[in-house]
């Protein structure tokens, strides 16, 4: 009788089950559901510091008239559109190369490429700042081999500062994505490649027609993860530009703007919450779009 | 054994009770004042000195000076105030003058008013003004950011200038000299961080204006001082007499390495300039150049900060008494921190001590402290308002446009638009 109840709808009424998950549910409610709902409520309030009052949709209206927000949004989307495809493609190519069993020193290369994403954020930002300084190793190398005649203003020119941020995040996160691809590649049945080789399919076609389609679920996963990561980009920009998002707000991201609104500027927790919800909405929309593009079409 | 224990038990219990109540009494008597501030060689060291002086006469009060980076102090303070949990906050905190009104206005009731206790008439008026809200004065004025022009005598001499030539400069003359210095010595005139609004603030305040008017409304498009300042900075950039710097330490490096001929900064930079013993005797200090507009002076301010007592502090009374005893009255203390740390306090009575009249051999025997305190009294008082950080970012965002031939009025409009979007 008791056993029979477990499988059906009856198990939802089993008090013992609920007791087991109650502590976890309680903690989730307290530390996740409550803050989320509270921040949503906050995004409809405005004011200085603790002097908050209900403002309706004023914060959302303010978004459209706030040139700094629009600048931060444009910058963030630029990073997203430029950096994510470069990184995904690079990670795919690297993973295919390192999957080759005849490659000498595979383990070394895999470790070397994965290493950046376990290094300290601050350490690597400081290192990048030194490397890309006007008289740093990058500029002196470029000058020595004659690619540029005068040092590139990596940190003081709007365009180059943005480029530097893209270089920095690509360096850090490519290896992370590559590991997912390597794992997925090792699950692909080798006989598929053998058949293709026997049929005379060239290497590049094997990559585009076999590897990429079979990796599609993993590519979708890494793209969504990278989208979330890029839209939340903060540490690199904060450390490379001393927290300012300069020059000329050229590297300012939405997350850095939220930080500024909360800790650097006159604190406006309501407006900062609204900007955070912009990120939430963007991530949701982009994830849905990516799932839609990668859907399995009926044959 | 059993009997023995039974016989001793009441005594043991009594002893335990006695020691517990003894501990409770000492805990009630000993007061520890926790202080948050930044800069171990300046604010932290000075506060420890002040604490040591107070403990001599008040042995029951001890001090816990906590050293954070400035941004961390501000972030922790703002988070603590917003969360409403006073336990996490210190008893005394250091706040930079530009941010004082922001904290006072956005966290009402968070700081203890000191109006009845401290005699504010003895302090530089502009320091008191930034900590006044609705007729109440909060905080204890501390160090001044009175500005000066530090210059390399040797580079200027090689370029054909005498120390007299550096007195009463205008900014246009400063740029002319800079061009000559570069032609003769190959050195740049000044280090400039295009992401830092410090130079703009110094020059603008010297002409008695700020990003905001006396009512705190944005004062950008009609601000003659800001316009002249931006034109000046634009000329410095176009004349290419500056060494670009990225960030604070990079900027400090421009003059400690001997790459530039001048530094425009608050008096607190003195310690950093003097940190290069091999440059002793090569430096001089003069008043900063003036703009060629009405109301222009040679006196200004950069930075500077003050001590604030948290209203929620359990040691509020002791903290206020401590600040008043040492920072409000102790002239000898000000002499000591001036000599040891190069701190120019804003207590006007402290300006008549022996230390202020001493000649400094690093600056070739000039009486630099006397000079700085004379300039301090002349700093134009402005309303820093509550949005200085926002305005600063709006201004630095437009600095690159200055060299691209964009008319200054257009730049002012762009700055105004950005600030208007930020202050709501």
Automatic annotation (TrEMBL), chain A:
Its main location: membrane. Signal peptide: none annotated. It is a multi-pass membrane protein. Residues 73-290 form the ABC transmembrane type-1 domain. Pfam families: BPD_transp_1 (PF00528). Keywords: Cell membrane, Membrane, Transmembrane, Transmembrane helix, Transport. It is found in: Cell membrane. InterPro entries: ABC_transporter_permease (IPR051393), MetI-like (IPR000515), MetI-like_sf (IPR035906). The keyword RNA-binding does not apply. The chain crosses the membrane at residues 20-41, 77-95, 107-127, 159-183, 214-234, 269-293. Gene3D superfamilies: MetI-like (1.10.3720.10). It comes from the Bacteria. PANTHER family: ABC TRANSPORTER PERMEASE PROTEIN, INNER MEMBRANE ABC TRANSPORTER PERMEASE PROTEIN YCJO. Belongs to the binding-protein-dependent transport system permease family. This is Sugar ABC transporter permease.
Automatic annotation (TrEMBL), chain B:
Belongs to the bacterial solute-binding protein 1 family. Keywords: Periplasm, Signal. This is Extracellular solute-binding protein. Residues 1-30 form the signal peptide. The keyword Amino-acid biosynthesis does not apply. It comes from Sinorhizobium garamanticum. InterPro entries: Bact_solute-bd_prot1, SBP. It holds the Pfam family SBP_bac_8. It is found in: Periplasm. Its main location: periplasm. It comes from the Bacteria.
């Amino acid at each position: 009788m008791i056993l029979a109840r477990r499988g059906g709808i009856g198990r939802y009424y089993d008090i013992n089950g609920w007791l087991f998950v109650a502590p976890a549910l309680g903690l989730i409610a307290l530390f996740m559901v409550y803050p989320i709902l509270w921040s949503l409520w906050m995004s409809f309030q405005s004011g200085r510091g603790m002097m908050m009052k209900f403002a309706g949709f004023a914060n959302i209206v303010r978004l459209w008239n706030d040139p700094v927000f629009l600048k931060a949004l444009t910058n963030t989307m630029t990073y997203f559109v430029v950096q994510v495809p470069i990184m995904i493609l690079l990670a795919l190519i690297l993973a295919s190369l390192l999957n080759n069993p005849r490659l000498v020193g595979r383990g070394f290369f895999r470790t070397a490429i994965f290493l950046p994403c376990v290094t300290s954020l601050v350490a690597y930002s400081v290192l990048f700042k030194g490397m890309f300084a006007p008289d740093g190793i990058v500029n002196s190398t470029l000058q020595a081999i004659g690619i540029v005649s005068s040092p590139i203003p990596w940190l003081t020119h709007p365009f180059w500062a943005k480029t530097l941020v893209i270089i920095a995040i690509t360096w850090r996160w490519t290896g992370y994505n590559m590991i997912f691809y390597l794992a997925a590649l090792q699950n692909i049945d080798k006989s598929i490649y053998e058949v293709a080789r026997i049929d005379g399919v060239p290497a590049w076609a094997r990559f585009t027609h076999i590897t990429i389609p079979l990796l599609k679920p993993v590519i979708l996963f890494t793209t969504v993860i990278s989208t979330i990561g890029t839209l939340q980009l903060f540490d690199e920009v904060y450390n490379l530009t001393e927290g300012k998002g300069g020059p000329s707000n050229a590297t300012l991201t939405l997350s850095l703007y939220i930080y500024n609104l909360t800790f650097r500027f006159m604190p406006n927790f309501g407006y900062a919450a609204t900007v955070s919800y912009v990120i939430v909405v963007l991530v949701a929309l982009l994830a849905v779009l990516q799932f839609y593009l990668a859907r399995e079409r009926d044959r | 054994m059993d009997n023995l224990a039974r016989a001793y038990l009441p005594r043991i219990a009594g002893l335990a009770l006695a020691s517990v109540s003894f501990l409770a009494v000492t805990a009630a008597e000993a007061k520890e004042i926790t202080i948050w501030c930044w800069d171990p060689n300046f604010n932290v060291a000075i506060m420890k000195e002040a604490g040591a002086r107070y403990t001599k006469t008040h042995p029951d009060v001890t001090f816990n000076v906590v050293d954070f980076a400035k941004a961390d102090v501000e972030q922790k303070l703002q988070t603590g105030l917003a969360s409403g949990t006073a336990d996490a906050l210190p008893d005394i905190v250091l706040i930079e003058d530009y941010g004082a009104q922001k904290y006072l206005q956005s966290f009402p009731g968070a700081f203890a008013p000191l109006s009845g206790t401290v005699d504010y008439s003895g302090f530089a008026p502009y320091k008191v003004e930034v900590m006044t809200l609705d007729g109440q004065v909060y905080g204890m004025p501390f160090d001044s950011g009175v500005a000066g022009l530090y210059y390399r005598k040797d580079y200027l001499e090689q370029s054909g200038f005498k120390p007299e030539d550096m007195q009463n400069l205008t900014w246009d003359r400063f740029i002319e000299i800079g061009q000559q210095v570069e032609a003769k010595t190959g050195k740049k005139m000044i280090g400039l961080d295009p992401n830092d609004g410090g130079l703009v603030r110094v020059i603008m305040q010297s002409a008695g204006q700020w990003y905001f008017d006396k009512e705190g409304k944005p004062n950008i498009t009609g601000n003659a001082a800001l316009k002249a300042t931006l034109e000046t900075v634009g000329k410095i950039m176009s004349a290419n007499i500056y060494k670009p710097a990225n960030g604070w330490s990079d900027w400090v490096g421009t003059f400690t390495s001997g790459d530039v001929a001048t530094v425009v900064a608050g008096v607190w930079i003195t310690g950093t300039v003097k940190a290069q013993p091999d440059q002793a005797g090569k430096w001089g200090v003069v008043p900063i150049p003036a703009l060629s507009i009405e109301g222009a002076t040679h006196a200004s301010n950069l930075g500077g900060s003050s001590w604030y007592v948290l209203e929620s502090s359990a040691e509020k009374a002791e903290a206020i008494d401590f600040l008043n005893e040492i920072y409000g009255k102790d002239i000898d203390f000000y002499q000591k921190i001036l000599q040891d740390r190069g701190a120019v306090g804003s207590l006007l009575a402290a300006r008549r001590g022996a230390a202020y009249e001493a000649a400094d051999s690093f600056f070739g025997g000039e009486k630099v402290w006397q000079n700085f305190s004379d300039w301090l009294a002349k700093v134009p008082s402005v309303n820093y308002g509550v949005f200085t950080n926002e305005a600063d970012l709006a201004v630095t965002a437009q600095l690159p446009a200055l060299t691209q031939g964009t008319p200054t009025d257009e730049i002012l409009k762009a700055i105004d638009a950005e600030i208007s979007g930020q202050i709501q």
